[in-house]
Design goal:
Strands 4, 14, 15, 16, 17, 18, 19, 20 and 21 form a nine-stranded mixed beta sheet that branches. Strands 5-6-7-8-9-11-12-13 form an eight-stranded parallel β-barrel, surrounded by six helices. A three-stranded antiparallel beta sheet has the order 1-2-3. The protein has two domains: about 5-40 and about 310-435, Beta Barrel (Lyase, Ornithine Decarboxylase, Chain A, domain 1); about 40-305, Alpha-Beta Barrel (TIM Barrel), CATH 3.20.20.10. Helix 3 packs across helix 4 (about 95-105), helix 5 crosses helix 6 and helix 8 (about 225-240) runs parallel beside helix 9 (about 270-290). The radius of gyration is 23 Å and the shape is globular. With about 450 residues, it is an alpha/beta fold. The longest helix is centred in the middle third of the chain and has 19 residues, at about 270-290. It has helices at about 25-35, 40-60, 75-85, 95-105, 125-135, 145-155, 195-205, 225-240, 270-290, 305, 340-345, 435; strands spanning about 10-15, 20, 25, 35-40, 65-70, 85-90, 115-120, 140, 160-170, 190, 210-215, 250-255, 295-300, 310-320, 325-330, 350, 360-365, 375-385, 390-395, 415-420, 425-430. Bound molecules: pyridoxal-5'-phosphate. Pyridoxal-5'-phosphate (PLP) binds next to helix 10.
Length: about 450
C-alpha cells in the first residue's frame, strides 16, 4: 500500500503505477535529470510554511517563524521561504552568505536582516565579523568565549549587537543522543543547572557593545513529545524573571525547532497546531503568572518545513541474493546523499516508483554504492520483485539529506528539482567531475 502520509502533499500513484510529485511522474523526472535526484514538491513547502505561520500567529500575533537553514538551504529555496514570510536561522558564515546573497537578488542595496538569527557553539571570529558587517538582526550567543569576542568585535566595528543567549534547560526530549541538545551533558548553550546561564546573563547585561534582548533554547530533534516544550518554556521564562531587577527585559523568547515529522507509516508526530498550542499556552500562562509582559516568540522549524517536501529517486543496479540470509538491492546513491541511516539509524520507507501498484512480495535491503558495509538506506523493506533499472523513491528526504551530503568516494552530489503543477525546474545541478577537483591544487 502507498504510504501517502510520508510523501509530499501532491504525491499520488498514476494508473501506470508511477509515483507522481507536483504533477510530474517519477520516471520522467529520472529520465530528464538522471538519478539519484532530490525532488522537492513546491506545494508542500509552501503549505508547511503557511501552517507554521498561521498556527503560531493565530494564537500569538507576535510570533515569527525563522527557517533553520541547516536542514537545507540554497538560493532558490531562500527566495521561496522569504516569499512565505519566514526569517532564517543560520549556523555558519556560508549559510549567512547564501541567505544574504539570495535575498539581495532582485532588490537594490542590502537586504534587511532583522529576522536572521546566527546560531552555533563555536562561531569563528571571521564569522562574527561577517555577521556584524552584514548588520545581522540577532546573534544567539552560546559561550563565554563568544560573549567576550562578540563584545570586542562589535566595539571595534562601532556597533551595538542585539543578542539572545542560548540556555540549556536540562530537559531530555527523548530523541537520539546525537540530536539531543538541551540536556546538561551537551556542547550547546549555558546550563541553567550549573549557574553558567545566570553568569552569562550578568556578563551580557554588563557588555557595553551587546544588547541582551532575550533567551533561546533548543531541545533536540526530532521531538515527538509536547511535554518537553511545555516544561522547558516554563522553566526558561521563570529563569528569565529572576533577572528583571538586574535589567533583563525579555523582548524575545525562542524555544528553537525540532518539530517532528513522520518518516515511517507507523509514526504520528504532533500536528503543528499542537506544538503551537503547547508553546503559546505555556508561554502566556507563565508570563501571566510572573506578571511579565509576554515577549515576541520565535520558532525555528527546519526538518518540518523541508523534510516532507523532498523525495529522493534512485535507480536499482546490482542485486545480490544470499539464499536464506538477505537480498540486497544496490542503488546509485546512498550514504553520500543520505547519511542519516548510517549516522543515527534513521528509518525510511521505500517505494518502487515505477511499479507502485505491484504486490509487495519480497523483503529486501537497500544498499548504497559507497564503499562501506554500513551504507544501507533501508533494511528489510517490502517491495515488488525488481530488476536493474527500476526506480526507488525514498520520502522525507528534503531535510538533512542534501545538506549533509558528501563527495565520499568522489561521487558527484545529486541535483535538486522543484516540481509544481506538472512542471519541474532544476534548482541545483548535478556536480561534475570537474567540480570534484575544483579546489585541488596540482
Ligand atoms: C538552534 C536550532 N534551531 C533549530 C533547529 C532545527 O531543528 P529541526 O530541523 O529539527 O526543526 C536546530 C537543529 O539542530 C537547532 O540547533
Amino acid at each position: 500500500m502507498f504510504p501517502k502520509a510520508v510523501f509530499p502533499d501532491t504525491a499520488e500513484i498514476n494508473p501506470q503505477g508511477h509515483l507522481v510529485i507536483g504533477g510530474c511522474a517519477a520516471p520522467d523526472l529520472a529520465a530528464e535529470y538522471g538519478t539519484p535526484v532530490y525532488v522537492l514538491d513546491e506545494a508542500t513547502i509552501r503549505a508547511r510554511c503557511h501552517s507554521f505561520v498561521s498556527e503560531f500567529q493565530s494564537r500569538y500575533p507576535a510570533a515569527r517563524v525563522a527557517y533553520a537553514c541547516k536542514a537545507f538551504i540554497n538560493p532558490a529555496l531562500a527566495r521561496l521561504l522569504y516569499e512565505e514570510g519566514l526569517g532564517f536561522d543560520v549556523v555558519s558564515g556560508g549559510e549567512l552568505a547564501t541567505v544574504v546573497n539570495a535575498l539581495q537578488l532582485g532588490q537594490s542595496g542590502r537586504p534587511e536582516l532583522d529576522h536572521v538569527y546566527f546560531h552555533g557553539n563555536n562561531k569563528t571570529p571571521q564569522e562574527l565579523a561577517e555577521a556584524l558587517e552584514q548588520s545581522i538582526g540577532w546573534v544567539v550567543v552560546d559561550s563565554f568565549h563568544e560573549l567576550e569576542l562578540l563584545n570586542r568585535l562589535a566595539g571595534e566595528a562601532g556597533k551595538t549587537q542585539n543578542i539572545l543567549l542560548r540556555v540549556s534547560p536540562g530537559i531530555d526530549p527523548h530523541t537520539h543522543v546525537y540530536t539531543t541538545t538541551g540536556i546538561l551533558d551537551s556542547k550547546f548553550g549555558f546550563s541553567i543547572q550549573t549557574g553558567h546561564a545566570a553568569l552569562a546573563v550578568r556578563q551580557a547585561l554588563a557588555a557595553p557593545n551587546l544588547n541582551l534582548r532575550g533567551l533561546h533554547f533548543h531541545l533536540g530533534s526530532p521531538v515527538f513529545e509536547l511535554e518537553p516544550y511545555r516544561v522547558a518554556t516554563e522553566l526558561v521564562l521563570r529563569f528569565a524573571a529572576e533577572f528583571r531587577e538586574e535589567g533583563l527585559q525579555l523582548q524575545q523568547f525562542s524555544p528553537g525547532g525540532g518539530f517532528a515529522v513522520a518518516y515511517t507509516r507507523d509514526q504520528s508526530p504532533p500536528s503543528v497546531a499542537a506544538y503551537a498550542e503547547t508553546i503559546v499556552s505555556a508561554m502566556t500562562a507563565t508570563c501571566d503568572d510572573l506578571g511579565m509582559e509576554p515577549p515576541a516568540l520565535v520558532v525555528e522549524p527546519g526538518r518540518s518545513i523541508i523534510g516532507p517536501a523532498g523525495v529522493a529517486l534512485y535507480r536499482v543496479g546490482a542485486i545480490k541474493d544470499i539464499p536464506g540470509v538477505r537480498k540486497f538491492l544496490s542503488v546509485d546513491g546512498g550514504m553520500g546523499d543520505n547519511i542519516r541511516p548510517a549516522l543515527y539509524q534513521a528509518q525510511y520507507e521505500v517505494l518502487a516508483a515505477n511499479r507502485a501498484n505491484d504486490a509487495l512480495s519480497e523483503k529486501v535491503t537497500i544498499a548504497g554504492k559507497y564503499c562501506e558495509s554500513g551504507d544501507l538506506l533501508a533494511s528489510d523493506v517490502m517491495l515488488p520483485p525488481l530488476e536493474p533499472g527500476d526506480l526507488l523513491a525514498v520520502p522525507v528526504a528534503g531535510a538533512y539529506c542534501p545538506s549533509m551530503a558528501s563527495n565520499y568516494n568522489l561521487n558527484p552530489r545529486p541535483p535538486m528539482v522543484l516540481a509544481a503543477n506538472g512542471a519541474s525546474r532544476l534548482i541545483r545541478r548535478r556536480e561534475t567531475y570537474q567540480d570534484l577537483t575544483h579546489c585541488d591544487v596540482a
